[in-house]
């Protein structure tokens, strides 16, 4: 994981609800603190990072400054495709274009179009290029972190240059598609990170993500971040001593002994799931479970501090 922050693009994905946004924010904090101009990309109409950092969200598609060296932006695939079609239509307004049926027809007839335009927008961030009406940039971000959708949708986005390539053979979008494909295929410039919980289903999905990356873009996972892991608090000797306690007449001691055994069993199960990943030679980075009411900025900073020691 030592070289992750040296890439231009980090793609984070995994099963829904595993904490991709939390890990994306933590990695963004680490990179920004190390002086890298970093932007975290959220997909859809999400603006969770601005809320997390207490910033005022920018308009859709515009970049929000979260703190020194750290920005966020939300990319909605439908909006990105509509803006691209509008740029081709010259003076035709987005409202007219959307209501004319052209947008719906093109989106349905061109497989991978929305995903490709979204990925091209992300590629432009690595190159220092902004969309129409955003104003010029002279240099790109040092690091773009994509908080991607769940595994299936993420693989569709990553495969979009090949999916759409048969349609976009000439013109600017064709050259951008080629350059995007080169970025996604280059291990020196892009990296793929699975985020998982230490559960059987989430780990299985991370393994399926590895297979999908190899099949669709001939890449492998660079790392797996496992959220919410419990430490092994008791040794075999500790458990043996707990088993010998006389808890028949003390309800508190009995409850404590049962809790200790339950926590040990759960932690043991989680570490078995980590072992499934390590057997595949992945770089596995467990993030400890935080006993907090909500994952606010302070909690994300704690996670960043933990991950920073491994970078």
Helix amount: 40-55%
Helix/strand-derived category reads alpha/beta
Classify the fold: give the CATH topology: Rossmann fold
First-last Cα distance:
6 Å
Within CATH, the superfamily carries the name P-loop containing nucleotide triphosphate hydrolases
CA-based shape: elongated
| CATH class assignment | Alpha Beta
Number of domains: 1
User: What profile does the largest beta sheet have?
Assistant: 8 strands, mixed
Radius of gyration: 23 Å
The counted number of beta strands is: 8
> What string gives the helices and strands in order?
EHEHEEHHHHEHHHEHEHHEH
Please describe the structure with a list of short key phrases separated by commas or semicolons.
311 residues, alpha/beta, Rossmann fold, 8 strands, 50% helix
Describe the structure.
It is elongated and about 80 Å long. The longest helix is centred in the last third of the chain and has 28 residues, at 251-278. It has an eight-stranded mixed beta sheet with strand order 3-4-2-5-1-6-7-8, with helices on both faces. It is built from 13 helices and eight strands. Strand 3 (63-67) and strand 4 (70-75) form a beta hairpin. The protein has one domain (4-232, 282-308): P-loop containing nucleotide triphosphate hydrolases (Rossmann fold). By secondary structure, the protein is α/β, with parallel strands linked by helices.
